[in-house]
Design brief:
The chain is α/β, with parallel strands linked by helices. The protein folds into four domains: 3-69, GMP Synthetase, Chain A, domain 3 (2-Layer Sandwich); 71-137, K homology (KH) domain (GMP Synthetase, Chain A, domain 3, 2-Layer Sandwich), CATH 3.30.300; 156-161 and 179-384 and 579-634, 4-Layer Sandwich (Metallo-beta-lactamase, Chain A), CATH 3.60.15.10; 390-572, Rossmann fold (3-Layer(aba) Sandwich), CATH 3.40.50. 35% of the residues lie in helices and 22% in strands. Strands 12-11-10-9-8-7-28 form a seven-stranded mixed sheet. Strand 7 (181-187) and strand 8 form a beta hairpin. Helix 11 runs antiparallel to helix 15 (448-457).
Length: 636
Amino acid sequence: MTAEDVLREIKGKVRATVPPSIDVSDVEFEGALVVLYTKDPDKFAEKDDLVKHLAKMLQKRIVVRPDPSVITKEETAEKKILKIIPKDAEVSNIYFQPDVGEVTIEVMKPGVAIGKQGRYLNEIRRKINWSPRIIRTPPLQSKTVQEIRGFLRMMSEDRKNILRKVGRRLHRGVSEGENFVRVTGLGGFRQVGRSCSLLHTQDSKVLIDVGVDVSSDSNGTPYLHLPEVLPIETIDAVVITHAHLDHSGLVPLLYKYNFDGPIYCTPPTRDMMTLLQMDFLKVAAADAKKIPYGSEDVKEVIKHTIPVNYGDTTDITPDMRLTFHNAGHILGSSIAHFHIGDGLYNIAFSGDIKYERTWLFNPAVNHFPRLEAMFMESTYGGRDNFQPSRKEATNHLREITKRCLKNNGKVLIPVFAVGRSQEVMIVLEQLMRKKEIKNVPVYLDGMIWEATAIHTAYPEYLNNKLRSQTFQKGKNPLLSDIFKRVDGHEMRQRIIRDPDPCIVLATSGMMVGGPVMEYFKSWSDEEKDMIVFVGYQAEGSLGRRIQKGWRDLTLNISGNATQLKVNMDVETVDGFSGHSDRRQLMNFVNNMSPRPERLIFGHGEESKCLDLSSSVHKKFNMNTTAIKNLETIRFV
C-alpha cells in the first residue's frame, strides 16, 4: 500500500466519523502527524472526545488546524491579540508560524496573559483562529532565535511542503522479508571528533550526528562516501544529539550534496547548532581555510529541522520511532532512543552525557521503557580519568584566579560558547559576589553572549534552580553586571592594551581559531598573565599542545606561519567538563534500567574506549565492544 492509498483510507474514515455539521476541508500528512483542516475550529474544540476517538481509531497523532481561509491576517490578528491581552501582562513579542497555524506571544507575566481558566487564550483562539502559545519573555533577547523564527515565517509554504513530503515518506509502508538492524561507525569511534553513525534496517537509513573534527586539517569529515551511505538521497533522516560541532558541524554539507530529508533534534539544539555552524564558516574564512558549505546550506538545515522535545515520541521512518531524553551535557543535548519495528529492537545513542546535576542541568537520563543496545561515549573513560567535584573545581579556579589578579595579571579562559562558558560565568559571579576574588570586569568574547541568550529562551531545559533564577534579574547569575560583552575588534584591542587586571572568556575552546587567539598572541609572553583550560582539549589541537607545556609554538595566522613564545602561566581546572568521568560512566551503566544486552563504546581516544569497554565487561558481565570507524555491527 502506498502513502497515497493510506491517506485516501484515512480521509474516508475521518469523513465517516466527523459529523456533517463540521466542515473538514482537507486531511494531510505533515511529518508524523495527520492534520485535519477545518472551517469550523470552534465546533471541533467543543468536541474534545472526537479527536481522541479519531487518534485511537487511526492509531495516529491527530492535529486539528483551522483552514487557511478562516485564519485572520497576521497584521489584524496582532492588533486583536493586543486588545484582548491585558496591558499588565506586558507583551514584548508576537511570532506567527503560518505553517502550523500557531502564534507565540512573549509576555512578562504569563499568568495575567492566560487569564482565569484560560479566558484570554480561548478568546484569542475564537476571534483570530490561530492557536495561541504564551511564553515568558526571556531576560536576554537572542538574535539567533529571532532570526530563525523570522526565517521560518518567511518560508512557511516551503516548510509545509517539506513536512508533507516527509509525511508521505513516513507512510510508504514496510517491506516483507528478512528483518535486520545494523550500525556502521562513520566517525568518532576510537577518537573524539567527526561523530557519525549509520543506523540501517531493511526499510530505513538514518544518520546519527554528522560532526567535524575541528582539530584535524586532513581527516576532519566522517566517511560519508561509503556505498551504504550513498546516494545521499537514500538517507531517510538525520538525528542530531546536540549542537557541538563535532556532532553537528557538517549537517549543512548534506544539503549541498542533494540531501532533502528531515533533521530531528530538540528545539534548543536547532538554534545552537545554527549559531555554531555560522561561526564555523566565519572562523574558517578568517583563517583562510577551505569552507565546506555556505550560509544557504545552513538555511536549508533550519528549513528541514523538525524539533522534538524531551520525552515526546515521533515516527521518523516507516519502521523507526524516536524519543529524546536529557543527556545533561549542554543545552538541549539528548540521548536518542530508537524503537525499531513492531517491538523488534530498541537501541540508544548517548551523544555526550553528564551523569551528575550541574550548575546548568539535571543529570543524564538512564531509565528507558526498553533497551537492547546502547552506543556510549568514553571521552573520560580511562582508568585514571577521575574529575574533581564542582565544588573542588570552584575552589581551584578561585585560588589560581586570586593569585593572578593579585599580581595585576589577566586571566584568559578559552571556552566553548555553549555549556562551559555559562558554568564558568555562574562560578565567577558567585566568587565575586561573595568577595572571594577581586571584583574585575569579566569580558565575554565570541558567541558566548548570544549562546547565553539562547539559554534564557529555553528555561524548561535548565535545572530547577536556574530555571527559577532565569526570570529574576536580581538573582540570575548570568545577568550580573560583572559581565561585559565584547562587541568587536576595536573593543578587543582596547582590552588587550588595558594595563588593568581582568578576566576574558573567549571562544574557541580548543584554540583552533576564534577571538581567543587575539588575546593569546598578545599576552602569551607576559609572565604575570595566565591561561586557564576548563574544557576538553583534543589531541592535535593548539590547546592540547599548550596544556602539555609547549613553550615555542608555530601558528598559522591568516595563512602565515608565526612564531610565538609562551611565558604566561598555564593552568588546567578539571571538574567543569560536560562529560562524565570514569566513575560517573560506570555509575551510569550500573544504574541503567533496563540494562542493555550490548554496549558499544566510542567518542574517546582509542585507549579510553578499549579500557572502558573492558572494565564494564568485567564488572557487569555485559557484552561490550569498542568498534573502529568503518566497522559494522549487526544486532538483528
